[in-house]
Write a structure and sequence with these properties.
By secondary structure, the chain is mostly helical. The protein has a three-stranded antiparallel beta sheet with strand order 1-3-2. Strand 2 and strand 3 form a beta hairpin. The termini are far apart.
């Protein structure tokens, strides 16, 4: 889900911009580029993921003029690269939409918030619970982090977008359309969950070293 036209009040656009900027600053404070500089293979995988996500985001369903629906893949990026690099990738994808003229630039902060910050926070929370509270089981990791976590992240994005529209939409009709959009949200959640869970399963089994949140020693070697 991405907002394409500035239907929100100016104060809300500014507030979302500040929140996105602050979270991005925290992500950069973790110095994710240090890991990239030390691992050439990771550089190639991350750049390939950036290109893939940017291209995937071009395949969008335009439900109304100001709202587009598309796969985010943010949950998968978070599980593979962890939160800082996932957020940077999301920022680059959102910037590509602005550069191509498909999204108005004042909405950059809003879209980073609802397609990046919110789903990343949801996936990190699910992963923390699985990592620290549940037994070391491969199927639990894949289903809870991959399938369930991705579905929850899509739900979080939809609810965040709806909340922003209801909070500060300058067009009364937008509130009605946003509520109608919620009827389609259950259709988006399974697709996001299936793609994320399927790709995470393949990587965890064949290339576990590529998944930063996955420990092959805990989930495979000790079983």
């Amino acid at each position: 889900m991405t907002l394409a036209e500035p239907i929100l009040a100016a104060w809300l656009l500014i507030a979302c911009g500040f929140v996105s900027l602050a979270v991005t600053g925290l992500a950069l404070a973790q110095r994710p580029w240090q890991v990239l500089l030390q691992d050439q293979g990771l550089q190639h995988r991350w750049l390939a993921a950036c290109v893939a996500v940017i291209l995937m985001w071009q395949l969008r369903a335009q439900s109304v003029d100001w709202l587009t629906l598309h796969l985010m893949l943010t949950a998968l990026l978070t599980l593979i690269f962890k939160a800082p690099l996932a957020l940077i990738t999301n920022l680059l994808a959102n910037l590509s939409l602005v550069v191509l003229g498909k999204v108005a630039w004042p909405l950059l902060g809003v879209n980073v918030l609802i397609t990046g910050v919110v789903p990343i926070a949801v996936v990190v929370l699910v992963w923390r619970i699985v990592d620290r509270r549940l037994p070391d089981n491969l199927m639990l990791f894949i289903f809870l982090c991959g399938f369930f976590g991705a579905a929850l992240s899509a739900l979080g994005t939809g609810l965040a977008g709806l909340g922003l529209v209801m909070l500060g939409a300058i067009d009364p009709e937008a509130v009605f359309l946003a509520r109608e959009y919620m009827l389609f949200l259950p259709l988006l959640m399974p697709s996001e969950a299936f793609i994320t869970g399927m790709l995470l399963s393949i990587l965890a089994i064949y290339h576990p070293e590529w998944v930063a949140t996955f420990s092959s020693h805990r989930y495979i070697d000790t079983k």
